[in-house]
Design brief:
Layout lengths: L5 E2 L11 H6 L3 E6 L3 H14 L4 E6 L2 H14 L6 E3 L3 H9 L25 E2 L4 E8 L16 H4 L2 E3 L6 H12 L4 H10 L3 E2 L3 H9 L5 E5 H9 L4 E4 L6 E3 L3 E3 L6 H11 L2 H9 L28 H19 L2
Parallel strand pairs: 2-3, 2-4, 7-8, 7-9
Antiparallel strand pairs: 1-3, 4-12, 5-12, 6-9, 6-10, 6-11
Length: about 325
């Protein structure tokens, strides 16, 4: 089977493997993901409780690096992944448009909002993740309440954000913000002029703010709120104008040689068991009727900023270049 950077589960007895998997596909799948390694370890452990017959191998990095690895494999004619789980619907749309994804027409989507299901049934949202503002409670007496507050020189000079050159969530956030008439690229130009900086992924942001290297950051909510829960001197703001959102979609590659096992993994990711686990990891649920993590606002109360993902895909390279021109690459 395929070689990856990290093996997280061991194969179980051949007698436990479903006949359809044995006959057609084997029992090992390779997942490429941007979800944090410690979370994916727990995900795979929970999956293997229900499906010990399937071994899951993992390659984990930021979305941009995952996509770069995939593009190199496509060029070589040898894609190593069976399943992809990343925080970027724009990148998923790109993969679909390139004809790389499997149309899983009978995927169990009955509990998913229609807005997170690709019309061609090639990828499916697994959770709701929003982006807002983190701040260090030891350094900030009066926290910002709105995106507009971050442009103030005294705040921007202490602000760090993830880069869309590395983070899929940042691709969506930057793409969403620049589509808002009240912001556009002028918003980021003002941040840059007033001293804001970009790190790599959201992890660099939470670390910088938690350590007190920066008083403010732009970040996905679960990283900030998990850090707060673990005792870091941080808190999180859902800005007044609204939040950008991602759904961490999952998809199967069209040329997988482990199709049945890949379907089982996707089915599990779209199940109530996975939803309940994602809540324990600090994610908003995507299923109706599942309680949000403690301390989170109800999903219905969130003001989600509108986003045109087709336009975002068309603008993706230009957006990344403009961001790099402002904040470095």
């Amino acid at each position: 089977m395929k070689t990856t950077l990290l093996r997280l589960a061991a194969a179980f007895a051949i007698s436990a493997v479903p006949a359809s998997v044995l006959a057609q596909d084997g029992s090992t799948i390779t997942v490429y993901t941007s979800q944090p390694t410690e979370q994916m370890t727990a995900v795979i452990e929970a999956f293997n409780v229900d499906h010990p017959e399937i071994t899951v191998e993992l390659f984990r990095s930021g979305t941009t690096e995952v996509m770069s690895k995939l593009q190199a494999e496509v060029a070589a004619g040898q894609v190593q992944a069976d399943v992809i789980l990343i925080a970027d619907a724009v990148a998923m749309t790109q993969l679909k448009n390139e004809g790389l994804l499997y149309a899983y027409t009978d995927a169990p989507v009955e509990n998913l909002p229609a807005s997170v299901v690709d019309p061609d049934m090639t990828f499916f949202g697994t959770k709701l993740i929003t982006t807002g503002i983190i701040y260090n409670t030891d350094l900030v007496d009066t926290p910002p309440t709105a995106w507009a507050d971050l442009t103030q020189p005294e705040i921007a000079s202490g602000l760090i954000m993830p880069s869309p050159l590395y983070s899929g969530a940042a691709v969506i956030h930057v793409g969403t913000v620049v589509q808002q008439p009240e912001f556009g690229w002028e918003y980021y130009e003002t941040l840059a002029d007033n001293g804001a900086v970009a790190g790599q992924g959201n992890g660099t942001v939470v670390e910088a703010v938690a350590r007190g290297e920066k008083p403010y950051g732009i970040i996905i909510e679960y990283m900030a709120l998990n850090a707060k829960k673990d005792g870091s001197p941080v808190d999180f703001v859902f800005p007044a104008e609204g939040v950008s959102s991602i759904t961490q979609p999952i998809a199967i590659f069209k040329d997988t040689d482990a199709l049945e096992a890949a379907k089982i993994f996707v089915d599990w990711q779209l199940s109530a068991s996975a939803q309940e686990q994602s809540v324990t990891q600090g994610y908003f649920p995507i299923f109706a009727g599942v309680a949000v993590p403690e301390g989170y606002p109800e999903v219905d109360s969130l003001n989600i900023l509108p986003a045109d993902f087709d336009q975002m895909l068309a603008d993706d390279e230009a957006n990344k270049q403009h961001f790099a021109d402002l904040f470095g690459g």
